[in-house]
Amino acid sequence: MLSVCLYVCPHTVLSSLAQAYECFQLANQLSAQPLFKLQRFSQDGQPVRLAYALLDVEGGLEVAETAHLVMLPATGSDQATVRQANGTLLNWLARRPAEQGLASLCSSAFLLAEAGQLDSCQATTHWALAGQFRQRYPQVQLRSQQLFCASGQRFSSAGAQAAVDLCLHLVELHGGPWLAEQVAGALVVERQRGSQSRLQPLLPSPRQDDPALLELLRWLQPRYAEPIDLANMAARLHCSPRTLLRRFRHATGLTPLAYLQRLRILAAQQALRHPGTRLEDIASAVGYADRASFSRLFKHVCAETPAAYRRRLTAASRP
Questions:
Q1: Below-50 pLDDT ranges, the chain
Q2: Residue 201 forms part of a structural domain
Q3: What is the CATH number of the domain that holds 217?
């Protein structure tokens, strides 16, 4: 039996903890014999008060000392505060031997990396935290497009629901593919969901400190298929193309062309929901005369071809 200890602290995201717990419990119920021994622990062994729950634990760090796998559920985006509040845990993590398993869900990859446990390992975290993670932990091989990573006895998952993907992987490792499929079916989730980049919003939320640029973004929304270039957009803002580039990057993180391309891809995604529409017609409707160029751009932005995107939607809509 694999002993799994799940860490609980005041910053723990309860849904993340519950996802992991439910996945392993279902595996125990559906297998011929229990495969996972589940326990919760805190830094000091005391119950943990969350915003809307008081969670009991089986003990402190001593409970996790001999566990085969220690798992850290998500701890939110304010990782500076999380690091400060979990110093005792970080010191303990830093001493954990390489052959003993460690897993992080979503943002808690920061805790494993802070303790040095992901050095030279492949790891992932929520896509929105990837830039911050990469800057602070350059020694980690961040794979932000992946839903989960397994690097020796170090495991990590991307944002939110990706915790289930990692837990199903662990169920398969210890209970076989059949059991993992049974658990996935019970949870009504699809296995092999592809990359995290496929689920990332195409358009970033713009900064709010440039009202004129925000107005330009609103102006672009219904005109994505028109032959708009940098000069057109700069003229609307009464500035030079160079100034437009600077303001656009500051507000969105994208160039004007990249933003316009993503508007077109979003429109194409909606059109692909209609199975009778030809790809040539969709490409033309969103502003591309060449289907091949449209398909290459779609795959670059969405991490899958238009045809694969349509097949996936069609399969998901079947009863």
A1: none
A2: no
A3: 1.10.10.60
Give the domain range for residue 52: 2-196
Assess contact for 59 and 6: CB atoms under 8 A: no
Per-residue confidence (pLDDT) for residue 193, from 0 to 100: 73
> Rounded to two decimals, what is the model's pTM?
0.78
257 occurs within a structural domain: yes
Q: Which two tokens stand for residue 134?
A: 């990469």
Long-range contacts of 214-223 (CB under 8 A, 24+ apart): 214/251, 217/251, 217/252, 217/259, 220/259, 220/260, 220/263, 221/263
> Are residues 50 and 184 located together in one domain of the fold?
yes
pLDDT, residue 216, reads 94
